[in-house]
Design a protein that fits this description.
The protein has 426 residues and is an alpha+beta fold. It folds into two domains: 115 residues, Rieske [2Fe-2S] iron-sulphur domain (Rieske Iron-sulfur Protein), CATH 2.102.10.10; 270 residues, Naphthalene 1,2-dioxygenase Alpha Subunit, Chain A, domain 1 (Alpha-Beta Complex). Helices cover 20% and strands 28% of the residues. It contains eleven helices and 21 strands. The strands form five sheets. Strands 12, 13, 14, 15, 16, 17, 18 and 21 form an eight-stranded antiparallel sheet that branches. A hairpin with a 5-residue loop joins strand 3 and strand 4. The two termini are 40 Å apart.
Length: 426
């Protein structure tokens, strides 16, 4: 369990909080590039780490990310005009470029120098892998842009989506790092891909810390087939990478590596970024196949409202089917990610609402990866408070890692068996 003090330290992300200051030392995935489809398109609201912001693509295609309110009289910039390389507030016409500079002040005399001293809050951005990334921290602490392997895969070999989740970011991340639950929560008699994990519901875990965060390995007994080994990567502060290659004794038709980023919107809401990439150049990811994966996970277009909000949610008990629970599914809930959300969004206790009360926990051996993650994050809060850089921000720390999963023959050394597959191919 965690003390209440440490639970607060890890879960609160607004400016000035310990974890909020840690988060601000990393580049954050703020929007899909497609949400800003063309130059001078409509501005978009973006709430990140407890801050209300407005994103826009200017006339030259550059993305700006600015304060949601005009510095004049705090009018909402969502209604602003996006024109001629700037965002113009419709209240009094004050205009700002993507860097936050005031470029027009029509309510003041032409001779006024006021324009030279007025700025709107703005954050640096860059685009890669169909995502708009932003850095919200101190400029003198800004790392180089991230260089995860999945970002380097070409568009034909990667897949990116996002989904809204109504809970604190930490319990969502913990769900992603908890390999044992997949043997139970996601058990479907009709889903053959779960067979290997269903054979052994008590995996043996190893955790190996690194500069990116840690590598953790789950070992499941697979009888005469040997051992099912799944190598995951936890990348500070909010990313999980895992293998999705092996089913039973064979590989999927479209073998992928995949993962998530759990980006805090604020203390009680999270954007779940879902990404997948091909294991090598010979396995492009057809759009139809990846859409089918999204449907299996409960995040396909038909599963969402207004693009990113799930139809199956806490208000309708995730449309649980008790008959199906008795006959087909361990949960009776359709969609693997929906099953995750049902548990993660409903956690609580002691009036904590959408934030889990970890003082009431009783952890076991299957929670080794979660305990290690919490310790790394607590260490990061202390490092930032001491003026040090936290792990995982430097692209050199994470550019050469990758996850993988496979069946290892009886008595074989998994490191030797998986050495080639654990080296990046992009």
């Amino acid at each position: 369990m965690l003390s209440n003090e440490d639970n607060i330290r890890l879960t609160r992300v607004s400016p000035g909080t310990p974890m909020g200051e840690v988060m601000r030392r990393y580049w954050q995935p703020v929007l899909l590039s497609s949400e800003l489809p063309e130059p001078d398109s409509a501005p978009v609201r973006a709430r990140v780490l407890g801050e209300d912001l407005i994103a826009f693509r200017d006339t030259n295609g550059k993305v700006g990310l600015v304060d949601a309110y005009c510095p004049h009289r705090r009018a909402p910039m969502f209604f602003a005009r996006n024109e001629e390389c700037g965002l113009r507030c419709v209240y009094h016409g004050w205009k700002f470029d993507a860097a936050g500079n005031c470029v027009d002040l029509p309510t003041e005399p032409a001779s006024s120098k006021m324009k030279d001293h007025i700025k709107i809050g703005a954050y640096p951005t860059f685009e890669k892998a169909d995502i708009v990334w932003a850095y919200l921290g101190p400029k003198d602490q800004m790392p180089e842009p991230p260089d995860y392997e999945w970002m380097r895969a070409p568009k034909t070999h990667r897949w990116i989506t996002k989904t809204y989740e109504h809970c604190n970011w930490l319990q969502a991340l913990e769900g992603g790092l908890d390999t044992a639950h997949s043997s139970y929560l996601h058990s479907e008699k009709l889903w053959a891909g779960n067979d290997l994990r269903s054979r052994d519901g008590a995996p043996l875990l190893e955790v190996e810390k690194g500069e990116h965060g840690y590598t953790y390995i789950s070992h499941r007994k697979a009888g005469a087939d040997g051992t099912y080994v799944r190598v995951y990567q936890y990348v500070m502060p909010w990313m999980q990478q895992r293998g999705g290659v092996t089913k039973n004794k064979e590989r999927w038709e479209y073998p992928t590596l995949d993962g998530h980023i759990w980006l805090p919107i604020d203390d009680e809401q999270t954007w779940v970024w879902n990404f997948a990439w091909a294991i090598d150049h010979n396995h492009p990811l057809p759009r139809e196949a990846m859409e089918a994966v999204d449907m299996t996970n409960g995040r396909g277009p038909a599963d969402l409202i207004d693009g990113f909000y799930p139809k199956r949610n806490l208000a309708n008990d995730y449309m649980i089917d008790r008959t199906r629970q008795k006959t087909v599914s361990f949960t009776g809930i359709t969609g693997l990610n929906t099953q995750d959300f049902a548990l993660q969004e409903s956690m609580g206790g002691s009036g904590s609402g959408p934030i889990c009360d970890r003082t009431q926990e009783h952890l076991g051996s299957s929670d080794k990866a979660i305990i290690a993650m919490r310790n790394l994050l607590l260490e990061a809060t202390r490092d930032v408070e001491a003026g040090k850089r936290p792990k995982g921000g430097d692209p050199k720390s994470h550019s050469q890692i990758r996850p993988f999963d496979t069946l290892v023959p009886p008595n074989a050394d998994w490191r030797k068996e998986m050495a080639y597959d654990l080296r990046p191919k992009w």
